[in-house]
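Thread: quick sanity check before group meeting

JM: Hey all, I'm pulling together slides for Thursday and realized we never actually wrote out the predicted structure for the chain we discussed last week. Dropping the sequence here so it's in one place. If anyone has concerns about the input, flag it before I start.
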Amino acid sequence: MKVYLASLKGMYKYFEEYLSERIFVLESFYYIKQWMLKYIKNHWDFLLDSGAFTFMQNSKKSVDWNDYILKYADFINTYDIKQFFGLDIDCVVGIKEVERLREKLETLTSKKCIPVFHKSRGKDYWTKMIKEYDYVAIGGIVTKEIKKKEQYIFEWFLDTAKKENCKVHGLGYTNLTGLKKYHFYSVDSSSWLYGNLSGTIYKFNGKTLLKEKRQGRLKTKESANNNFKEWLKFQRYADEHL
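JM (edit): ok, ran it. Output follows.
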């Protein structure tokens, strides 16, 4: 299983020594920084999120999604991005518009994106999607559209996708117990970063990550460096064993 680390944007100076390694990184188009470009091209196994939902939340006016798609596609083409998600905005524009924007994106890039499934689409849509694509994602985990008590459905999603030789990404899913139970092809997490912000120190014990809550204020550089390093250890373990 590939465990992609997300939200590197503002913290890279604390762990710059690790960035030239082959690591799994996910970043949002909305947050891409200039310093990332050489690593995306030469080092990382990289996933690009559309950033559409973040853009919409931070925009003070209505969003021109056609213009957004043009800019997103131009970035993908300019930097030859291999793996990128479609616009994950079902709840804003509806599934038909999501499909139109997806088709436009794929035409502009001459590549298939990674479409993001939401449970509101239903099982028939999932079955159709895994037949048309070889890499898909399940969304709505972080927002609790899929509640924790409903996560047993992951087994059905993963089993049906496997029959179609389709890879599945769990967006924002890094429940450490669940990762051993549900065999996603890939997942992503920014927990390493929020651990630092909440005063949590991570330690990889050879199989999983242990969390230690510290009292008082942590030194940002030391804690960020530690947490990123320990998550990299877990990333390598997951790639070989999960």
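AS: nice. Residues 220-241 form the longest helix (22 residues). The longest strand covers residues 2-6.
JM: adding both to the slides.
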